[in-house]
């Protein structure tokens, strides 16, 4: 049975925008087997921010890649809006990719350094049928969602933007596809503290403004609790804790979660101050 991140049973598949049921990923390396994701079932209700937290090697990125259908599952099922997408191919897989967009850790890696940002964004729309004027309007709208104006971004080359601005341009590019789900995999890890808060706030506002479901993957339980409505904690490929952010912070059950929380001693205090 699938449960949502609060641990209660998922009533129907259509309650969630994205879900995985009993998903496993095994890697076989030089005769030995690594179980990177070990029977994980999660349910992502529409319009929530959900964080998956765990230390390096806990299986977060492997889970993210499977949810994004960038990597096949060993076993288990992934559903999107009630439809089994585990083995989608061709056109239907491309349609899925337009609905589930991702932003990764290093925005520099995703940019061609030799093109101004405006060209890069327009090229992202090249395969769709929108005309030049419509494309420019969409780009302006999506830059607006992440707090940038065309003048701040379009004529600049990637190296002329700050890390936070580059990451916000990547978010704008993802939003141009009008996705239902935005998956951010360590998307704030390379930013300094101020820029990180800035991007976290943008992600939070996107949820409110666009009703996006945001899946936030991080090793940092502090960031997870700052941003997310619900948190799932992964250790050695398994989900060892799940619940609302308050439940996870104030009544953690797993020893592993308690240890992660102990590494952020002022978390409860800073969250209280933010309320
Ligand atoms: N392509 C691969 N081949 C073999 N083993 C892999 C592969 N990708 C991941 N692993 C292993 O699977 C486990 C989970 O890795 P994964 O990258 O998903 O963890 P993570 O929690 O995202 O860590 P990090 O935060 O460091 O990226 C690790 O033991 C890793 O070494």
From TrEMBL:
Keywords (A to Z) from UniProt: ATP-binding, Nucleotide-binding
Classification via InterPro entries: AAA+_ATPase (IPR003593), ABC_transporter-like_ATP-bd (IPR003439), ABC_transporter-like_CS (IPR017871), P-loop_NTPase (IPR027417)
ABC transporter domain boundaries: 18-261
Short name of any one Pfam family annotated for the protein: ABC_tran
PROSITE patterns: ABC_TRANSPORTER_1, ABC_TRANSPORTER_2
MF annotations from Gene Ontology: ATP binding; ATP hydrolysis activity
Name the UniProt record assigns to this protein: Peptide/nickel transport system ATP-binding protein
Organism, scientific name: Kineococcus aurantiacus
Organism lineage: Bacteria, Bacillati, Actinomycetota, Actinomycetes, Kineosporiales
